[in-house]
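User: Teach me something about this protein's shape.
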Amino acid sequence: MFRSSSRRRFLGSSLAALGTIGFGRAAFPWFTGVPTGKAKRCVLLWMNGGPSQLETFDPKTGTSTGGPTEATQTAVPGISIAQNLPGLAQRMDKLALLRNVTSEEGEHERAQYYLHTGFRMVPAFPRPALGSVISHEWQEMDFPKYVLLGNQSHSPAYCGPDHASFGVENADAARQLLGQIRRRRDSLEFARVLNSEFDGRNNFSAVARRRSMLSRIEKLVTTPFGNALNLTAESATTRQRYGDHEFGRRCLLARRLLERDVPFVEVQLDGWDTHINNFQQVAQLATMLDGAWSALMDDLQSSGLWSDTLLVWMGDFGRTPTINGQNGRDHFPAVTPVVLGGGCLKTGQTIGATNRAGTAVDGDSYRVADVSATILQLLGTSPDKEFTTSFGSPTHATDNGTAIAEIIG
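Assistant: First, the predicted structure itself:
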């Protein structure tokens, strides 16, 4: 049995660790809504920093803007992507490339907010991340409904703190911590008793967050969530297919979470802000991306989950066709690459196009809000659904976005 001071130290270190690895940002809302979309789950592959479309899914071989990147023919006749992605080229029939999405935000924080929420940033009117909206609308379940595998989270805004992203930066550390807490659950009850008198006299938001955190931790350790975090349960061959790097491990963890019906998982890959040495950096990033993404698709197909899974690949914005003096590419929101995949879509196609040099969208374009509307509609939430904010203002789920008909069917 711990002494009081020992209990305080354990609880303090546990909660500190929760903050370090990203826990404590979501709750268990026990909502009763039933999803009605074509997709039952979504995995967002987020390329932090802004990926170059010219070195991934819209190469411009033989032009002054294309640089040294060569194109490779995919499994779909007439569709070529960059040579950096041979595995995805073989799986192109299960993907759809959006080459005509445009954005108005060329600064990282604002662009990340825009792509995650579908609204341009207005500090006085915060908007929830798409994962938070899905969590808010989804059916009751024992696990968190919006899991973030990375370190950059976005606010749940009017959806409330119960629907914030549940962050895991390191699966092994998170699993070990859950095991420690499970073995010492009496510390949670002690903390509740210790703080009850203070909580009763105060109504601060911090008090509410702490009370909610204790409740979340207690509920979490009673579920098999920790087992989902155990990547050593996978064979060495499987782990090797995903890659011996953080992104590969995160994609493998995403697959394990999706298998347990977590509806929205975001997997982050940093390093795409390639102002310097763009071609070398993207080649390295693409190697990690191609192997892990391909393995994730293969496993979802073999398990039967691909038919009702939505996969989304995107980042802050695209990169400039002009190559700068440091052999890099700068911010270019005018062309923001997006890829969608899944058995619930019309795949094996490109939607829209850029001109020969890649300097602008050629013809019709789609807005970021349209991408958001497509994701929400596929997951069973109407883009026009009306919410009420914490300050009493009505708002829709998207900024007048319209789902992209060519891909939904």
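Now, about its shape. The chain has one domain: 4-408. The chain has a mean pLDDT of 86. If you'd like, I can walk through any region in more detail.
User: That's plenty for now, thanks!
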